[in-house]
């Protein structure tokens, strides 16, 4: 293998090596997979692999390593010499509250490269989380964080100066109130929390501050409670740039209905609305549903429905939203719906087909699984 390795041009090897990388956002160090396996084929390949920066720009670490292995690995990791932006994921067992060996020395080894972090995913105990975010991240664009307990966010403060490029924030399932996080909400373009059940009183202050969102995913708690006067006396959130909104929850019941009615969202640029119904036997639409009003005000073009009983009231939804051009029905993973029971009714298809004649837009009906 060594002789063959020397015969292949270095430029060709670099391309091949990059194509060998796992198709994932964060690469787990594994001697059986690239990039580490490339260093164990032969000395020629190892020499090339160690000087290809893009092989070492992504790293996924788990806090289940032996204490000594952490220090040894971080001090020898080739990515420490790379000058390109880095993607880093740090995870731990949710049942473990703290790791004694995740000490200041390990944190310093990681933070030494903080100025090159572009994408960061942190799912660790609160004590470790606060330590890792105690720095400036001039290149950070995406942050995924797990709010594990109520006091975490009081120690998480990221100003616009600390994260001048931060645009995307995602919440890994957690328990505390994200509204107490100190981040530059007004600079975010993407905010996703599909598995964190919000109450309206948590959701309102966040959306009011997120004036530049273009994409948003949010789950409403079935125990959603808010004092109506609080909303009535407040300025409704105006999200002028929001083009895609995903709402997860009990669509027909009060959680999502309250979200749409009480929040009085103003979304003039909304193009796509996805509703994920967590209740299998529950319909999406009721007479004069607030979904209809939102669709009309926003000139909604695309509606996606997942879970529940999407066919009930679908015709009324199409008629109530004249701008609607695309309908997608998606089965939630693990659901019992079959393809036949989710076929688009003829009346619905006919109603949208009529709009082709007047507008020239192509209508779309799709059944898929999420």
List the helices and strands and how they pair.
Blueprint: H1 2-7, H2 10-19, H3 43-49, E1 58-62, H4 67-76, E2 86-91, H5 104-111, E3 117-123, H6 126-132, E4 142-145, E5 168-171, E6 190-198, H7 200-209, E7 215-220, H8 228-232, E8 244-249, H9 254-263, E9 272-277, H10 290-298, E10 302-306, H11 314-320, E11 326-331, H12 346-359, E12 364-369
Parallel strand pairs: 1-2, 2-3, 3-4, 4-5, 5-6, 6-7, 7-8, 8-9, 9-10, 10-11, 11-12
Helix pairs in contact: 4-5, 11-12
Protein name: F-box domain-containing protein
Describe this entry's structure for a reader.
It is globular, with a radius of gyration of 24 Å. Strands 1-2-3-4-5-6-7-8-9-10-11-12 form a 12-stranded parallel β-sheet. The longest helix is centred in the C-terminal third of the chain and has 14 residues, at 346-359. It has a domain at 189-370: Leucine-rich repeat, LRR (right-handed beta-alpha superhelix) (Alpha-Beta Horseshoe), CATH 3.80.10. The mean pLDDT is 81. It contains 12 helices and 12 strands. It is of the alpha/beta class and 370 residues long. It has helices at 2-7, 10-19, 43-49, 67-76, 104-111, 126-132, 200-209, 228-232, 254-263, 290-298, 314-320, 346-359, and strands at residues 58-62, 86-91, 117-123, 142-145, 168-171, 190-198, 215-220, 244-249, 272-277, 302-306, 326-331, 364-369. 28% of the residues lie in helices and 19% in strands.
